[in-house]
Each structure stands twice: as structure tokens, then as C-alpha cells.
């Protein structure tokens, strides 16, 4: 595909913390294209204030996928599941898992303006791949033209760059930037959830983060000739391609794609698992099966059909190991909705054990809640829709049947959290997630603020006062006076100021979320809790910090460490 020559190129003024890689991702182009367009010989040297011309990207369409060698046996999941139809009645082929195959240069939408100055056909690979993944996971066939129109109306682009989470929201989902990990990809696609990955294919860009030239949707995996392979829907051709695994990298496709380590995952929705997609009825769209079956216990009624009118459920958080009245209320609701039997409850009434956890996961899957087996805000909301009243026991008492391990508070999160590679971020992630669940402040923003404000937990304020956010005033443990830099009248000055003092880091994190939530000047930010970048900009605009580069620094940290994946956990 070629770029439209009549389109006037957009420009951008470099800010502190920008890199060509970050700008390439933001504007839907590549670092190589940016460097060539602006005559930059050293891509590691750009300066604040420098004006860059933003080129269109994906200048050429990869050639059609070559046929496999005769001795290659395709894995079972290369067989198409059958076509699906969008709301206009147009039919699209799918890969075996049921993901529609869209081509970014399709005549229906390829000429649409993308963002400010590009086109879907030239630079719409990320958006097209997202449309495929969102269509599969949400059960709604959303073609790229429909998604582009929706993004135009809902602030879905920054320049020519895609707002991933905003795109996912069209299907009722959320998107997160995740650290590159094949285990993460395996778990997602095995659960019927396509992921979007960046690939490199142009000579000279040498892979890595700076080499992302294109985006594709990985939909499944299998084996060919006894070796692991991955299947992806390619927006460039609108066809399925096969990638081989070489270490931690995936390679293959029409022009020798190589993954660059950029990964987007999606939360929410209720996708059918691979192998459960039904063939579409004549004249209609493939029905979503939800990927679940009724409980196998003969005495259990069909799951999800029970009314909960007159049933009271707790307002607190429950998880495996909790005990008490709140757990009994939850078990009663699961019996009424057909996810547990009285016989199952009788083996541990009032104790949140493996049977209660398994039943709750089934309920969550069937009601569009991330199936983590914990009872929290979204699960409560799902029960409310069935008629339940919330406000019973506040929660369960941790079971004493298992000796304490001395593990720090996990903020209501069980199991290991994703690792960022940064000890401070990893240590504080659970408290940030807990704050998000209680106040709505994105965990990614909380973590970035904590790192920036406390100097990665090493500042005098954080070590002497457990204050990780630079909040001034008197705290639960009094106050501590510290010198601080303020940007006043166009220059930095040092002043002494009283700051809140806390008894523990967790107390600081909790107060930070409460401070933002209860302060009216940050009200605009809370309209964008699903968009971490916008949230960061709004609290900066409202005066959280005087540093003119404050929000840019936060966003840089969020992107560098893939912190938005914690937002997805916080929404569960």
C-alpha cells in the first residue's frame, strides 16, 4: 500500500522523555521512517523542542503468504470456523478460532483518514488487528471502518497514534500493554482471546522495540513437524499466517516478520474457547457460545438462570481462604443461580474453598467478568443485575487453617502478579491495585507517581514519612517538614513545606487514591479512569504538580514498564 501524496504531513515538537520508538508507536509509524523522514543519523539523539515531520507508515503491502512446503502438516486449528457477518450484513472469513480476518486496505475502509493525516490502508494495521481481536472476544463483529468511525467520534487517536484502550472499549473491553512473555500469549489464545503483537520486517531496523513496522493479531497455536507454531491474522493481507518459535521470538509470514516484544492483551468479554465455535446459521452471524458449558453435576440447574431477588450479598472482598457469613451468602447465591449444589456447600459451608472458587469462576465467565475466582466490585455488580441486594456482611475472615506465610498484603489479588523487572514497581503493585479497586485511580498512574515522587522509594520523604506521593499537610502519623523544589514564575526554587506522614507505605497508597477521589479539582480525571494516559494528563492539568513535564514523565514510565497491565487486574 502507498501513502496518499496529497495529505499534508503533521509535525510534532519533541518533549523531554520522548524517544523515536515511543513517538513511532504513538503516531502509528516506525522509528526508521521517522529517522529517514527527518534526516536523523543517530536515532538515540533527539532534543526537546526539535520539530519532527510525522510520516505515514506501512508504505508497502507484504506479498501474499507463500504456500507451505509439501512435508508440512498444518495443525488442527488452521481450519476455518466459518464466516461471520457485521451489522451491515457483510460476510467475512474467520480463522479456526472464530476471529474474523480483515484487510486494512479493503476498498470499504482503506481510504478512510486515520487519525490526523494518514489512512487506514497505509497505517491502520494496529487498529485493524485490534478490530479482529475485539470482534472475537466481544462476540460482536466490528469491522475496521466501523471502529475507525467510532474512534474519530470518541477521541481514539493522538495524532495518527491509536488509543488502544479506547478501541477496545467499542467492544466493551479494555486493552493493556503487557511485558513480552510467550506464557502470557499462550494463556490468552488458549482461552480464546487473541492478542496483538508488533513485528519487524524492514531491512535495517534489526528487530527490538525500535523495529516495530507492523501489527498482527495472534489467534492460536499448534505444532507442525513436531515444532511449536503460532497462527496470526495479518491485516496486510487479510489472511492467516504461520509463525515459528525461535527462543522467545516468533518469526515467519509473508516478509519474514519477527516479533519485537510489543504486546497488547484484552480484558473483559466472554470469548468462546478454540474448538467451541458453532457454524453460523444461514443469513446470520456466528452465535457466541461463551466458551462454557452447564455444570456437570446432574442435580445442578442450568447456570445463570436463577433470580436473586431477596438475596443479600456482602459488600466486601472475598477470596479463597475467606470464611464467615459473607462466604455463606455468596455460596447461597451460587446455589440459586445453579453454579453450586447444596451437597457441594455442605462440604464447607461458610468457607471459601476450591469448590466455591471454581463455581465463582464459572459465574464470572458467563456474566462477562474476568474469571479470577475472587468476589469483588464487578462480580457484585453482576449479581445485582440478577436482583441481589448488596450490603450484607462486609467480607470474610481469613482462614486460620493455613499457617501465615508472612507474605505482604496483596491488595485482594491472589497468585503472582506480572513482573516489570523493576523491584520498586513489583513491590508496590499490589497496593496500587488495591487503591484502584477502592477509588478508581488507575494502578499504572499510582505506580508511576510513586516512583517519580519518591525517587523509587529512596527519597527522604518516603523513608522518614512513608509518603510516596508528595502530598502536603498533616497525615495519620502527623507531618514531616522537607525541602522541595517548586516551578514558580518560570524557574525552579527550593522551599520548605510540611508533608503528610504515614505509619506504613500501604497507608500512603490508600490516602493518595482517597485524596484524588475526594478533591473536586480532579473530577475531570475520573471521567477517564479507563485511559491511564488521559488520567495522568488531567491530574497534571488540575495542578497536582508544577513540573511542566510531569504528565509526560508519568506516561513514559507507564509505557516503559507496561504498567497498564495492572489496570486490567484492578478492573477485575
UniProtKB/TrEMBL annotation:
Cite the record's Polar residues compositional bias ranges. 257-268
Has UniProt tagged this entry with the keyword Hydrolase? yes
InterPro entries, alphabetized: Glycosyl_Hydrolase_73 (IPR051056), LysM (IPR018392), LysM_dom_sf (IPR036779), MGlyc_endo_b_GlcNAc-like_dom (IPR002901), Peptidase_C39-like (IPR039564), Peptidoglycan-bd-like (IPR002477), PGBD-like_sf (IPR036365), PGBDSf (IPR036366)
Recorded hits in SMART domains, A to Z, give: LysM, LYZ2
- In the UniProt record, does the keyword Hydrolase occur? yes
- Give the residue range of the signal peptide: none
Tell me the superkingdom of the source.
Answer: Bacteria
Could you tell me where the Low complexity compositional bias lies?
69-81, 280-306, 396-411
Keywords, alphabetical: Antimicrobial, Bacteriolytic enzyme, Hydrolase
Residue intervals of the LysM domain: 10-54
One biological process term from GO is: defense response to bacterium
Pfam families named among the record's database cross-references: Glucosaminidase, LysM, Peptidase_C39_2, PG_binding_1
Enumerate the residue ranges of region (Disordered): 61-103, 244-328, 389-416
Task: Tell me the PROSITE patterns matching this sequence.
Answer: LYSM
Q: Which GO terms describe its molecular function?
A: amidase activity
| Name of the protein in question | Peptidoglycan hydrolase
